[in-house]
Amino acid sequence: MSSVVTGEAVVLELKPAGFAARGLSIIIDVVAQIVLGVLLILLVGNVFGGVLDPALTGALLLVLVVLLFVVVPVTVETLTRGKSLGRLVMGLRIVRDDGGAIRFRHAFIRGMLAVLEIYMLLGSLAFLVSLFNERSKRLGDLLAGTYAMRERVVARPRALAVMPPRLQQWSETADIGRLPDALARRMSQFLAQAPRLTPQARRELSLDLAAEASHHVSPPPPLDTHPEEFLHAVMAARRERDYAAMMRQRGRTEATARRLHTLPFG
CA nearest 212: which of 239, 236, 180? Predict the structure, then answer.
């Protein structure tokens, strides 16, 4: 995952497409272009067969080649803001290095370079350049200032904090105040990433977070409580209490709505 800072100082988390995904999307596009080209050649041959002289036929074929491999890809990429058939299938999009949508200039540079590195050199140049680039950029991307971004990113569901059984009774009587948003976010991120941390870092972070969270909890948990168990208990208790408060508010709203929509003499 790469971070892009916009002009408004907003951090965007964008995931560049891998080499395999980009290669497969290019193969799909090339195959579609070849199939479309064969169909157009057969159509032109059936319609103008024996009518045009060889010179005019050659010029018409050249126009078809330029149309298929330059004009159509550049037009589609410009109108769709970085899409193509292959990228649509693979869930990719071409974006600028700052994360913005590409324009005609970017699509034109990429389309012209694609004639050299993909069609004339059979993709060998694009393959070599992409191997030595962290975002799998080909030569056209380097000159245009673009890269392929993954749009369909599978978000892993975050595990919910579970109330430790030994702290269940304590949590029912403890006064757990509203946690600051920054602290609650750090606690949630720590509990999700704790299994992947080193034992020392895991213990230090849990102690620091537990010390911060203890200022919003009264009375403190039992003395032998592990800091991670304390964090789990605080997050689980806050979630359950917030959910209960939301359900009570929803019940009051529905009751008010029923009274408002009931005739006084119905």
Answer: 180
